[in-house]
Structures are given as C-alpha cells and as structure tokens.
Fold this sequence. Notes:
- By secondary structure, this protein is mainly alpha-helical.
- It folds into two domains: about 1-40; about 45-214, Butyryl-CoA Dehydrogenase, subunit A, domain 3, CATH 1.20.140.
- About 55% of the residues lie in helices and about 10% in strands.
- The protein is built from seven helices and five strands, in the order E-E-H-E-E-H-H-H-H-E-H-H.
- It has helices spanning about 45-65, 80-90, 95-125, 130-145, 150-165, 175-190, 205-214; strands at about 10-15, 20-25, 70-75, 75-80, 170.
- Strand 3 and strand 4 (about 75-80) form a beta hairpin.
- The longest helix has 30 residues, at about 95-125.
- The chain is elongated and about 70 Å long.
- The relative contact order is 0.16.
Amino acid sequence: MNRPPTAGELNLCLCHGCGLACDMRDEPEACERCGAALHRRKSNSLTRTWAYLLTALVLYVPANLLPVMNTTMLGSGADSTIMSGVLEFWQHGAWDIAVIIFIASIAVPGIKFVVLSLLLVTVQRNSQWARKERSKLYRFVELIGYWSMLDVIVVALVAALVKFQALGTIEPRVGILFFGLVVVFTMLSAMSFDPRLIWENPSIEEIADAVADH
C-alpha cells in the first residue's frame, strides 16, 4: 500500500513559531517568515522529558503527604492534605468538589506519569507497537494538561466562599507549592516530548511498500 511522503523525505520542516513549511535543503537556521529557530526534532527531547518527569514524580510525594491548606472553623483549626481534603468534602456532602479535587490532584497526575513513561520507554526501545494509539495518548496528555490547576482553583474558590460567609478561614500550606511545581514540571515534560519520534523508524510493512515501489 502506497503512503504519502514524510516531511523529512521532502526536506521540509514546520516552523514552531508561525507554522510555515520551510525548505531545509540549504539548512536554514531560522524561519524566513518569522525568524524563529528551525528544528527538525525537539533538541534533547528524551533527556529533557525524562528529567522533567522524574522531577515531577519526586515532588509528587511531598505534594500528597504535606498539608495543602489549614481550615479554621469556630475557633478550631486543622491541616489537610489533598486526600484528607477530598474525604472531608465528601463527608460534608460536597461530593462534586471532592470528585473534582480527586480527579485533578490524584488521577490526572497519575495518568500523565504512566502515559509519558510508556511513551518514553517505547520510543527508546524503537518499538513499532500501536504507534497510532500512542500518538493519540500523547494528544490526550496534552488535553488533560489544560485542566491540571483545576483543583488549586477549586480550593481558592472554597477559601473565598468560606471567608465571604464569615464561616471561618482557610489558609494555604506548603503542600500546595509542591503540587503547583508538580503541575509545572509535568507540563514541561509533555511539552518537551517530541511525538514525531514515535514514527521515527519505519515499520516492516512500510519498508516492504517502499521496496515494492522501486
């Protein structure tokens, strides 16, 4: 089965700044339209992705063990971690807020760790397994990355609501800083990964098609 030529076979490179398809036959260093630097692949993609991902994984431990907020109600205060906050909201009937915080704080980072690790390992092993599905997984990680700070926003809104109704006070604790860093580093990890590496090595079927065409 015939396939269309790749950008590399046509000596083309897409500018990351303006989207122009640039002719790379003369090896230009910058886009002729916007002046942005041209790269056929993201530089040191795997190394930077692993570094950001492992940093996020290390920070994820204190983000879940340290308190993220202190709630004072009727003169008595208590520190809450992410999980204890989820349970507290659930027990007080705010199950919707509990579900949002659980998904954004526990489930989403866990999914991103697993998916990015899978993508990195399979690319480094030059695996041709489910390449189309792995590309979809990467786009899924990009999509859920936009909602990574949702629980921080929810906590801020709850704090504002409590203070507005004069029910008590809510103050942030150091755990929220670690969680914010986890969000930043997982986003940097996803941005550093080059999904074109998934398609770097042709499959046996593609090689057979190329030989048949010639």
